[in-house]
Amino acid sequence: MRTTIITTVIAITLMFPHTSGAQTQSDYTLPKPVMIELNRLDEAYLILDQFAEKVWTGWDDYLNFPFLMTFQDGLRVLVGHPNPPEGFIPYPQLTIHDLSVCIDTSKLNNFPVHQPLQCGGGVLPYGTDKNNQPVTIVDLNLISATDDPAGKTEYLDAEYHILVFIHELMHCYQARIMPQMFGNLSLNPDLKHALYSEIEGLALQRAFEQDSPEKAIPFLKDFCVARSFKYQGMDESEINQARCDEFREGEAVYSEVTILQNIKNGFKSNLTAEMDPGYQRFKDIDRYLNKYINRLKENSGKTLEIYQKNYDYGCFEALMLQKYFPEWQKKIEAGSWLDPVLRERLEISKQDSLLSLERFRDNYQIDDLKNKHEKIINGRNETYRSFISRKGQVYVINFKPIKQYLPGLADKTKPTYKLGLMEMFPEGTGPVKFDGIVLDMKPVPTEINQLYYFKVVDTNPGKSKKNYAIEYQSQNESGTYTNVTITTPLFTLKAPKVMIRERGNRIKIIVLSRV
Amino acid sequence: MKTSKLILILLLSWQAMAARDFPAYHAVISSTRTYMDVSRNTQSDYWFTKDKTYISNGRVITIERKDLGVVYTLIVRSNEYYIDTIKPEKTQEKTTEEIDFRYVGVDRMVSDYDWVVGKKSKNDQSGLFKADHYTADGDADFDQVALEFWLAKPGNREMAGLFNKLIQNSMSYNKTRKPLVDMLKKDKYRVPVRIVEMLENPIAPPAKTEFIVEKLEPATAPANIFELPAGAKQAKK
What we know:
- By secondary structure, chain A is α+β, with helices and mostly antiparallel strands.
- Chain A has 12 helices and 18 strands.
- Chain B is of the alpha+beta class.
- Classes of the chains: A alpha+beta, B alpha+beta.
């Protein structure tokens, strides 16, 4: 009898795996992949202890901004929050750089989290402090590395994650640097914008590659003259937004480069190979440093890109200012922006401007650049017109609940045009597969919009009432389907868990789980 | 009393009353916005007559003077103001416009929703006035909104009509409130006493906004409420 009871108790315990349900702090141990990321954060703090002042005089508040890391198994880890919101319980057995750690295990699932992970996010308000004031945090999502056809595996490096943490902490500090801030520029490039933007990028590259101010300054003047043409046709608020965006992202990238330049001369590290087998202590530091100029070269010619260039152009403007006009940071703190400071220090004359115009023709081949950009701008506009003319049955697949960014998943050989938050694929995106999701798309015009949504329009819908077929394992009272295959005339979707919302001629498929 | 003296007294009283902008109406709206686990509360004070409006949320004061054709926007902290002319109301005309590609797809909040609107109950007593309770479910490609609003019909028609117009003006730009604005346009003497909006954003986390009309009544406006405060300076644009 006693043996039967003990056996039964053991059997019941084994039926309920460790990872499901609410956990008390004593039950749950942070797994190694999560500890690796937390140790990388500790390393970032240690690097900032050594070099923050070299980036910006007075940068000393990086421990005041909590980090929230969210993993695909539902685990959330909060570091350094003064008043953790409901749902978080203390994890007293660990501190990160003397900062407290709290965890939320209330939504754990069976997703297997393992390194390497991709890391991304931003700065947001989250919760309040004990005086009921909002707390600014760095909010990060860590997701499994998917197959990356572009081969950009550097984003998985430990070093890259450390630089991301530093980048985001610089964003937090920027609220103290900038006397005023403006909202993000909401603008798509026209021909003039794209053309002079590429000349700006080329001028910055060439300035950076020179080894003396006499050789660099003509290119910096070219940059400023091109900038003035680019800003024609933009109103004052748009120019302020553009300059603020460029400083915000560019200076955060500048902080990465400055840190790397200082690390090159030696630094103290606490992160051992045993703690993080992927961490090489920035051994191949030139590979990291070269990435920035390579990215500037790659992005300068991208016709349809505005925001992404802020990272590169802002960084290199800051590097040039630091090299040739080192008092620039005081001007920024007094309310100026990168290119006005540069223009002021260069003292560009009318003669300089005329010379730059000649150089645009002779050294930058402006006519060839104009033809290139015109073709792409016209292609984009025609594609948009064709997309909005498509009427019929609308299908939207929503990946927001699982926070899956879609643009990186499309087949990069497929033609695409970007317009605002839309990416238009006139020949479709190709198939998409990750975790437990398989999306087999036909080669039809497909839109990725607002980061998380696929949208396609069947212009020839059938006459039947239901424009999709569904097979599923189970359905609950709230209408959630599990282990589902949805077949439409334009795609087939397999997913672990979805909801379907129908309204008018729109069918929305909301993907609720990766596994 | 001599007739001339009586006329003078009446004239002076009339002027004094006019200077107090009577009849005037007073409304107080408290609003709460909850986003990312933080709730922000604001209380807004409204004073209005047929041709003047004063709205303050403690940080910004807006004074509309239809009699002068201007709107003042005053930043309380700096006591600086901006001045704009009142633009004529646009008539709803469908025109074919050339697409300005510089701005296509950049605005996150221009969804046109497909709405399902229903009346949940009549004569709900929970607010300032007895009201009809409506629900509206809005669905767009990349976002959705759940709206609830309570509409009442106060006895004072002038007050109701003016307040109705104020709310229409403040909410007509926002597509998430379209069913409410449509109902206010349809019956110009109905006013909202409570609004609850739950917005599932395309990218950002959900946001909940709630408005409650705490007060709506005729009142004597404070002296000079519809004038810029002493010392206010015009700001450079």
